[in-house]
Amino acid sequence: MLFHSFEFLILLSITVLVYYIFPKSRVYALAWANLLFYGASGFNYLVLFGIVTFISYFLALKLHESKNNLYYYLGLGLNLLNLLFFKYSGFLLSNLTSLLNIGFQNQDEFISRIILPVGISFYTFQIIAYMTDVKRDEIEPERSFIRFWVFISFFGQLIAGPIMRGYQFLPQINDVKSCIWKESRLKYGIYYIMMGLSKKLLFADYLATYANRFFDSYMNFTMLDGWIAAWLFAFQIYFDFSAYSEIAVGVGHLFDLDLDINFKSPYISRSPKEFWKRWHITLSSWIRDYIYIPLGGNKNGFVMQCMFLMTAMTLSGMWHGAAWTFIVWGAYHGLLVIFHNIYLRYFSDFRNKLKDKKWYNALSVFVFFNLTSIGWVFFRAKSFSQAIQIIGKMFNAGNLTITSFQVKYLVIVAGLCLMHVVEYLVRKNEQEIAGKIQKHVPVPLRALGYTVMVLALLVIAQTEQSTFIYFQF
């Protein structure tokens, strides 16, 4: 069920009404909404999701009561095996076949029958984080299965995040009976939902058409074509993924629930470290807390720190998809982080002299945005060889041409960069801007503007039913 579908609008509206009319039944209202939302993707996968959730809930209780880590490893194994089977069995089988030069009977038929359950990567990581926190005695296990189900399956963020932690979200779910209707929550909810829908329908889907056209004709790329393709996809995936996350935050506001902001204008980042504090924030913090730090973090010397970073970032790439392109994308970002750490370690005096210079910061943003765009080629390409060919063309200065066709897209990219900066400034000063709008723009005019925007988005939503990119992960 897509966020920009009429079915979702009906489900959301009915759930909000029931939620506030029957305060004692709020947890059950959310539980049923979650069932209907996920069930729309397929009854069999709903049953699988329910079984995995219940077993994880039971094992977490037993783990807390007995302090026997066997229950933790059983829960970890269950969730990882579930993820590995549906997401990686085809990839592993295909690579094993190629490596050993053997074939398995009915292999292609077996792989074709495996359909990836929507949201499996996100709910798996959320359950693993919960069980790990219970094991570490950082949280108490949830005693009510209904509340645990709502925590794991909240329909606002189930399919593509943000990834919520138990200490953040469970207390809110336990306190839903005391929630009261707040006009400010309604306004913020609609604000985030409208912002997300605008990003998806007006920008992400629009850019997808052109990005796809470029990548489909990569064999004829000039140097500039390759860069334009990378830049277009960089903004397409940003608008697409941040759109889902912001709609999720908006849905949370409607139920007086706080979900994490997952994106904070990532393309103004000056370094890899800053980028991962702005891009897919809940995943990068998950990788840090449940992979990088348990491996050893920065406690075992610089060389080991680099190895742990490389491992964590490569696993992050694997999480995104069962393909070598995603693994290379993760490893590429690992190398960017390592090289930046080397720069900070051995050229700190040089950096300290320049870090307050505006031109240096602007140059850092420009360089890192383009380094990130190179990585997106691996993410977007259909194969590793295609990605290498495109990147090779991007650095083939002998094939540089500038046509009026390319100038058109350069203007579009420049406009997108400007919009990104404006978005950052608006987010930074949104309270002040909102106050000025309320003070200087009459209520009827504001209402008319909002109504026109809502109607326009609803019309577009009925004609454009493209899914979100991260649904496949």
In short:
The protein is an all-alpha fold and 473 residues long. The chain is built from 20 helices and no strands.
Question: Could you explain how this protein is built, in words?
Answer:
With 473 residues, the protein is mainly α. It has two domains: 6-180, no CATH class; 184-463, no CATH class. Helices cover 74% and strands 0% of the residues. It contains 20 helices and no strands. It has helices spanning 6-21, 26-39, 43-66, 69-100, 107-113, 120-135, 145-153, 166-174, 183-216, 223-254, 272-275, 281-295, 302-320, 324-346, 348-354, 358-380, 384-394, 404-428, 430-440, 443-463. Helix 10 (223-254) crosses helix 16 (358-380) and helix 10 (223-254) crosses helix 17 (384-394). The chain is globular, with a radius of gyration of 23 Å. The two termini are 16 Å apart.
Radius of gyration equals 23 Å
Q: Number of DSSP helices?
A: 20
Structural class: mainly alpha
Reading the helices and strands in chain order gives HHHHHHHHHHHHHHHHHHHH
Which spans of ≥5 residues are poorly predicted at pLDDT below 50?
A: none
Shape: globular
Family: Belongs to the membrane-bound acyltransferase family.
Membrane topology: Multi-pass membrane protein
Keywords: Acyltransferase, Cell membrane, Membrane, Transferase, Transmembrane, Transmembrane helix
InterPro entries: Ac/AlaTfrase_AlgI/DltB, AlgI, MB_O-acyltransferase, MBOAT_fam
